[in-house]
Amino acid sequence: MKQNTLISNIVKIESKEKEILKNVLLVLGGVAFLSLMAQVMIPLPYTPVPITLGTFGVTLMALLYGRKLGTATILSYVVAGSLGAPIFAGGKAGSLFSPTGGYILGYIVATIILGYLADRGVTKSYVKTILSLLLSSAIILTLGALVLSLFMPGKNAFMIGVRPFLPGDAIKSTTTTLLLPTLWKFIGKDKN
Length: 192
Hints:
Radius of gyration: 17 Å
Strand content: under 5%
Oligomer: single chain
Largest sheet: 2 strands, antiparallel
Number of helices: 8
């Protein structure tokens, strides 16, 4: 299936060897971008999960790269952080079985779904883009709160694992929604 993503329309490569090199460089660049986004954070005193630009980075990568390349990028990021690279929020490394592990697991699931939708051209439409981002936010926050509740029993999972992140997610989703369909117009592709 031919990808209908921004990155596949902006960066066109003809030979197989150059295509592989391009993909490796995009994955490495994506991991570096995600690592930087995770460091832009606001710690919260009542939960071990900070507000970060990580979700912005994840959703942007998924929508720009599509399912295959986006998933490869997010999995590379998760594996590197799980193996000890200090690339998660606050310069930390860690496993998925941690208070923040559900959010990171949500990154993977959301990337697969957003990437699939990106391959089908949802980023050409403002409405489809925002609806896709609302779905991804629901996935990330739900999985995050579920796992967080295992580490903070007796606490209200919604109040500590979802509610504090809603305003930031709204801003990040709005920014991405304004950016991507506008980029499609900029590169001169028609909206189907």
